[in-house]
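RETRY 2/3 - previous attempt timed out on the joint model. Re-submitting the same 227-residue input unchanged.
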Amino acid sequence: GNSVTQMEGPVTLSEEAFLTINCTYTATGYPSLFWYVQYPGEGLQLLLKATKADDKGSNKGFEATYRKETTSFHLEKGSVQVSDSAVYFCALSDYSGNAGKSTFGDGTTLTVKP
Amino acid sequence: DGGITQSPKYLFRKEGQNVTLSCEQNLNHDAMYWYRQDPGQGLRLIYYSQIVNDFQKGDIAEGYSVSREKKESFPLTVTSAQKNPTAFYLCATRLAGGPETQYFGPGTRLLVL
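RETRY 2/3 succeeded.
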C-alpha cells in the first residue's frame, strides 16, 4: 500500500535559518504530492503541491520538488520566520483504484525562535 | 463565502453517550472525509464518502458511524463503542475527478468527562 515517511521532529530553528523537512513516499501508481500546514488549533491547509515527476511546487517562500528517482518531496525554505511555526504534513494522493483517499505522514512540528 | 464548517469547536462526552459532530460544506465538492488526529500523530481516516448515500470505512471505523443524505453534509457519530474518543476530529472535502487538494474544516476537539 501507499505510505509517507517524514523526518521526525520537533525541529527548532532561529529566525532566518534555512529549513529542510524530509519526506519520502511509497506508492503503487503515479501520485500527486502535497505539503499541508497546520497552525495551532486549526485544520490543515494546502501549502504547495506537485502533480508529476520533476515538478516544483512553491508558495510563501517554501519549495518542494517531486523526485521520482528518489521517491522524495522534501520541503525547503531559505529563511524562516516566527510565523512559520506550525506542524507540516507531507501527503500523497493516488486516485488510480484508490477511491479518492490520501495518505499523510505523521507531521513535523517546526518552532522558529526570534 | 465558501468553506467548510465544523461544529461544535469543543465537545464533551459522558461515559456511554453517543455524540455527533457536524460537518457542512458549500464548496459543491463531491467527496467528504473524516479524520482523527491524536497528539504527535498524523491523520487517520475514519470514513469517507464519494457521493450522496454512499460511504466507505477508513482505517479506524470501529466505534464510529456516518451518514451522507445530502451533498453538503457528512455528520460523524462517535458511539459508546469507541473506548478512547478523546482526539481532534477533522472533516475534509475534495472535488472528484482527479488528484485534487483536500480542503479541511477547522476541526472539533472531543473530550471525555
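Chain A is about 0% helix and 50% strand. Closing ticket.
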